[in-house]
Design goal:
Elements lengths: L2 E2 L4 H5 L6 H7 L5 E2 H8 L3 H17 L8 E8 L4 E8 L1 H10 L5 H10 L2
Parallel strand pairs: 1-4
Antiparallel strand pairs: 2-4, 3-4
Helix pairs in contact: 4-5
């Protein structure tokens, strides 16, 4: 079984305790995922992992509950039997992560331009 590994040790470290009500409130706001970035911008996993790490660190330093903006999930593909790790994100989390990506291309530049609005 093939797995994509992304270091989520920071995600576990910076999570605050939440209850089921909080999960029910914040989970529907997690509309974006790392897969959006890989499909749209073709960004390597290493770059995404570093950007995610920085975004989580920013949440920690700003005393923001990262659990409200980032959630690790496992996706199983029945067709080829692979297990992938993904991260669902809120709009704020997704935008924060985009700002942390060091490599730039035309599509990413357009996303960053829309963030200025």
């Amino acid at each position: 079984m093939k797995t994509d590994t992304i270091n989520y040790s920071l995600a576990r470290h910076y999570q605050f305790p939440v209850n089921e009500f909080d999960d029910g409130f914040y989970n529907p706001k997690l509309q974006y995922s790392l897969r959006h970035l890989t499909f749209i911008c073709n960004i390597p996993n290493e770059t995404l992992a570093e950007a995610l790490k920085k975004a989580l660190q920013i949440c920690y330093l700003a005393n923001i509950n990262s659990k409200q903006h980032f959630k690790q999930v496992y996706l199983f593909n029945e067709n080829d039997g692979t297990l992938c790790i993904d991260c669902f994100m809120s709009k704020n989390g997704f935008n924060l992560m985009l700002m942390q990506i060091s490599s730039i291309n035309e599509k990413l530049a357009m996303w960053l331009w829309h963030l200025t609005d």
